[in-house]
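User: Hey, quick favor. My workstation is busy. Could you predict this chain's structure for me?
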Amino acid sequence: MNALVPLPVLLPLCATGLSLTFGTRLQRFQRFISVAVLTAVLGLSVTLMIAADRQGPLSVHLGDFAPPLGITLVADRLSGLMLTVSSAVTLCVLVYSLGQGMTDRDKETPLAVFHPAYLILVAGVSCTFLAGDLVNLFVSFEIMLVASFVLLTLGGTGPRMRAGSTYVIISLFSSMVFLIAIAMTYAALGTVNLAQLAERLPDLSLGVQTLIQAMLLTVFAIKAAVFPLAAWLPDSYPTAPAPVTAVFAGLLTKVGVYCMMRTETLLFPGNRIGDLLMAVALASMVIGILGAVAQTDLKRLLSFTLISHIGFMIFGIGLATREAYGGAIVYVVHHITVQTTLFLVAGLIERRGGTTELTRLGGLAKAAPILALLFFVPAMNLAGIPPLSGFIGKLGLMRAGVADGSAWAWILVAGSVVTSLLTLYVTAKVWNLAFWRAAPPGQAESGTILESGDDSDDDTDEGPDGVPGTGDEGIAVLDRPSEGAATATLRARAVTTTNRLPRPMMAATAATVALALSFTVFAGPLTAFTDRSAVELLERTPYIEEVLGR
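Assistant: No problem, here it is.
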């Protein structure tokens, strides 16, 4: 069974080579490769999760080199669960992207780069969840960075290049900090293997331990978009194509949260900076959701809710109890699926109404009832309405806070309630503006091509709605083509509104909704599994003994 551990990384990398080889010549075969490989990765992830639950952690030393020389990959309950959820989500997003026609067939970009970049991203995410040493974790981050830049800048338009540049600059800064932390760790302890570090770190002085811990947390907080290190996110994600934004918002930020969970439990037990983490969690919750309240563009609104709800996960890490980690893991799994779903729905709304600007939308509940349902269910899930999985995760975290009984814990419990209520307000605002009210006079009709050379939100000119700075500046209605004459492209230059949304896009979005609902249906087994994962994280011994062969 241990031999299966590297496959979630190796399969996407091998498929990337095949995808690049075939390029645009055999596009159907290229799509088949991507779907087949991600389906296989999902099957492997489920297998590893079940095996880790029954047998304990699984590990493999690549090249049969023992630590600290070799590359170690480890699959335990937490990494198996993260692999399974991420594989399911990335598969759904891939199907969605195929329905949107995201195969990069424009003359300006003859090489089909979407599939290779997407597969590399999946490999990087899988490697992060399986990494057993800091260097391999750093390499995983860099793999994701390369793929992320390609996906963020698909089409090469000005807004996407600016957003991609911001993302790369922030990521390179975090990489530099990560490298310094790795160098300090190796200089002090002679290893970067996580299991060996867990045994050797207590021998260092408290000051050196705290410095290494602070540097690692800074890196992971940037990846997770934790306030105040989240300013880059609302300007980076919304400009990308809907499937790219969905997988980034739903999954990549949780990579940072996972790394925080792993290092705080394995390397730095004792919760020395729990109060600081809870203060950061509270700031992320409140400031993030207040930012969402102020938005009128759906994608930017969802980006701010993303920052806000990362605070719930940091709340659990700050408490550092079994109940808190169990609730945090539930919430991570829930948020991956729900946030991905909402961004996929935003893409459908843009295709149906020609924009994600809420002031220019309306009447979608009547015009597109299925689309309304696909938004309503995950929106209520995000707000934490019982008995959905969002409520289960929040309830677990708040119960852990009450059981802790400290002042910060009670403050976070109150902050969680306020954030949930404001999230409900935000989702209700989106529902009222985009779905419930009558369609405004300026809403695009079916078959209208909206072309934009610059979709930035900082212009002062008035657009078709007469409101400056709403993201519609420079947009002009071109014509009404015959049915099926045009499709949405990766170049961010044309969106064709349509009454009939592509079935693969609808099916993929419905699948993510169903996945999130399954966490409610199977809440008992899920919470039992996350509780066992939390116990395993806090015990540390099974992980260390498996890696070191004891």
